[in-house]
Amino acid sequence: MITTESGLQYLVLEKGTGDVHPTATSKVKVHYHGTLIDGTVFDSSVERGEPITFGLNQVIKGWQEGLQYMVVGEKIRLFVPSTLGYGKSGTGPIPPASVLIFDVELLDIQ
User: Fold this and answer.
1) What domains sit in the chain, N to C, each tagged with a CATH number?
2) Distance of CA 83 to the CA centre of its chain
């Protein structure tokens, strides 16, 4: 487990094949599975069967930081503190001040 200066923690589940990392302005394609600390699933592209593409500057800070450590083909588990997620307000099914856990597979950098 690696802990960054911001408090983000991540664990490499499967090493990737590339050597290029996305930047803060990259567009990426990922598969992900998001849960609360108690295991409750709140969002999953895996369950929908459809990966998602987005600009890295359009997502929560925990993803902005965490995905920049990845290379294509890599799978990681991100432990996102609420300060890098949805903070004190929460959103939808995510309660305020929640730690979020994401399993993320980086499929492509565009």
Assistant:
1) 2-109 (3.10.50.40)
2) 14
